[in-house]
Amino acid sequence: MLVRVDFNLPIKNGKVEDSFRIKKTLPTIKFLQKKGAKIILITHLGKGGKTLAPVAEALGKFIKVKFFSDIVGTQAQKMIGDMKNGEVVLLENLRNDKGEQGCNKIFAKNLSKLADIYVNEAFSVSHREDASIVLLPKLMPAYAGFQLEEEVRNLSCAFKNPKRPFLFILGGAKFSTKMPLIKKYLKLADQVFIGGALANDFSKAKGYVIGKSLVDDTDYGIEKVLKNKKLILPVDVVVRSGDELINKAVNQVKSNESILDIGDQSVKNLALLIKKSKLILWNGPLGKYEDGGAGSTKKLLRLVASSKTLSIIGGGDTVTLISEMKIEKKFSFVSTGGGSTLDFLANGSLPGIKALE
């Protein structure tokens, strides 16, 4: 079995910092082990040029695994030929071969020769048209892993007869990837709350000073979106002014200040909406969490986690916070995806999913 996973994990000082994605693949791996399959795991790490040795070490804390510092070469072929039923091996970083991101047919064919059946258990990279994602399913019998099926089923709840009231909370910074979501869910959801750096763009469009805050100067037609009554924006923010953190109204930010987080009143307003909602879809942090602006996001995540509301959480940075807080099991569903979650929510499918059909 050739299983495409996404173990593109954060590594610091040679150690994996977060094993969330590893844990999510274990049901598929253990199911295949019980069936006596020989399991070959393939993944990428970063943009290429890095070894998966730290990932193999982290994976080894959950299951017995052998790591081969080869992809499709003679060493990998020999080692795979010697595998016993139920064994798990991890091949080297796919992006160390240009054929992966180049979607090269010869590279894909060489990968396909290593096994009999392909399994996509990499939802979080299924928005990429890489060789291991879109070409392998055309070359061998292909199936979806348990986690990929879970992703599709749960994320589909946001656009297939969603429960109401439906609240969509959107944060983060990449306006270009999130504007299609904003427009789509202003139609589908009952309320759409915008936080994070995205809110700075709206504040600027309203004529407010945003100081040194992160902003995207591209014209995305924000003025039209601002007229939508479903749109909810922060009424106050936490700014860094020199060495101080100050809570102030959005129209009181000074040119030498930078916005770090949404403010206390905005948290209270959002908390009321959370309590009334039957479905909450959340993607992206509401503050600049890496610079000390995680306070409001953490408060509201705990509130969602303690509610009985159907809660679907996605986005790499939000999931990192949830993992740090050790509360992932308290939500209805936490997606392993970042960009793939956004694309799936916007388009209803992904290249990697279509390749399995």
Number of helices: 15
What's the level 1 CATH class of the largest domain?
A: Alpha Beta
Number of strands: 17
CATH superfamily membership of the largest domain: Phosphoglycerate kinase, N-terminal domain
The Rg value, from CA coordinates, equals: 22 Å
> What fraction strand?
15-25%
Structural class: alpha/beta
Number of domains: 2
Gross geometry = elongated
- In CATH, the architecture of the largest domain is 3-Layer(aba) Sandwich
Order of strands, main sheet, comes to: 5-6-4-1-7-8
* Euclidean distance between termini CA atoms: 19 Å
The largest β sheet comes out as: 6 strands, parallel
By oligomeric state, this entry counts as single chain
| Share of helix, binned | 25-40%
CATH fold title of the largest domain: Rossmann fold
| Rounded mean pLDDT score | 95
Verbal overview:
The strands form four sheets. The chain has a six-stranded parallel β-sheet, with helices on both faces. The protein folds into two domains: 143 residues, Phosphoglycerate kinase, N-terminal domain (Rossmann fold); 195 residues, 3-Layer(aba) Sandwich (Rossmann fold). Helix content is 39%, strand content 18%. α5 crosses α6, α8 runs parallel beside α14 and α11 runs parallel beside α12. α13 links the parallel β16 and β17. The longest helix is centred in the N-terminal third of the chain and has 15 residues. It is of the alpha/beta class and 357 residues long. It has 15 helices and 17 strands.
